[in-house]
Amino acid sequence: MIEVTHDVFRLAQVFTISRGSRTEAKVLTVRVTREGVTGWGECVPYARYDETLESVEAQIRSLPEGIDRLALQEALPAGAARNAVDCALWDLEAKQAGCRVWELAGLPAPGPEVTAYTLSLDTPEAMQAQAAKHAHRPLLKIKLGTPDDMPRLEAVRAGAPEARIIVDANEGWSAEVYADLAPHLLRLGVTLVEQPLPAGEDDALLGVDRPVPLCADESCHDRRSLPKLTGKYDMVNIKLDKTGGLTEALKLRDAARAEGYDVMVGCMVGSSLAMAPAVLVAQGAAITDLDGPLLLAADRAHWLLFDEAGVHPSDALLWG
Q: CDD domains this protein is in (predicted)?
């Protein structure tokens, strides 16, 4: 039996990026029950990819009872619906086998990974205050992609002078803007820029010097995305809601590394249930960005542990 429920998690504060603001995270929770054992997973439908809660739920409900992970890869495209079911099936298989998911996948036992903490887009003054509050964190992520990016970046650096900084332009720049900003990004210690150009326009990056490395986010969904990234990016951002689950995420990670890309593992704003499978993918990643639960006012029971060592692997009571 496949069960789908809608869950809402209130955010600790308003979260803003260049595309808009939100006060809550709306997710779908999938439970797959077979022979009295239930596995579960979570996905976050994303309007940027023409997904809604209703459309993703309809995809999930279209699946036949008894579908396995192999058949699932062909039954649904990469995206949120396949992610939730794929992760639920991994959890189910681990429970049925009496072991952890990483053992099923042939992976070494995971450990904690230092994660970025994302600052909400705001006025420079407010972002400096946010940065100062979180200056103890080793890695801060800033959502940019507006005409006032530099004052915000300067303010964050003033508020957190020792933290590493990565920038997510959310498809808001052009190749010319990146080239103009790159010297300033270097001066301010920015170590990475995510998706500076719209995914459909990133051929403009071909031949552009990249003094600050670029990471493909919206331009990279699964392994089929890799051929189009050559000469444009240095890193790929793997998100399970893009890959369509843990199964493809692990394959994308291996394929990207084989082609010479560094790996970032990111997330949508969701609960610890959504992050738990991603922690396995994030092992050894150049950048881990799994701070979704830190942005929530309340999380799932048996939530992931975040401490000075980073985000820890899930307890079996949560997932896997």
A: L-Ala-DL-Glu_epimerase
* Confidence at residue 223, expressed as pLDDT on a 0 to 100 scale: 98
The dihedral of CA 206, 210, 212, 213: what is its sign? positive
Are 115 and 285 within 8 A, CB to CB?
no
pLDDT tens digit sequence for 115-161:
999 998 889 999 999 999 999 999 999 988 877 889 999 999 999 99
Measured between alpha carbons, how far is 230 from 228 in angstroms, rounded to an integer? Answer: 6
pTM listed for this prediction? 0.95
200: left (phi over 0), alpha (psi -120 to 50) or beta: alpha
List the 262-265 sheet strands across, edge first.
Answer: 117-119, 139-143, 164-168, 190-194, 214-216, 235-238, 262-265, 287-288
The number of residues in the chain equals 320
Strands 190-194 and 164-168, sheet pairing = parallel
CB 302 within 8 A of CB 308: no
Say what angle helices 246-258 and 80-97 make with each other, to 10 degrees.
Answer: 100
Residue pair 242/220 in contact (Cβ under 8 Å)? The answer is yes
Pick the range with the lowest mean pLDDT from 15-24, 187-196, 200-209, 252-261: 15-24
Q: CA dist 208 to 185, 196, 197, 229, 249, Å?
A: 16, 12, 12, 13, 28
Q: Is 158 exposed, middle or buried (0-12, 13-18, 19+ CB in 10 A)?
A: middle
* 8-state DSSP, 113: B
Q: According to the model, what pLDDT value does residue 12 have? A: 84
Tokens of 293: 């639960």
What integer pLDDT is reported at residue 121 of this predicted model? 86
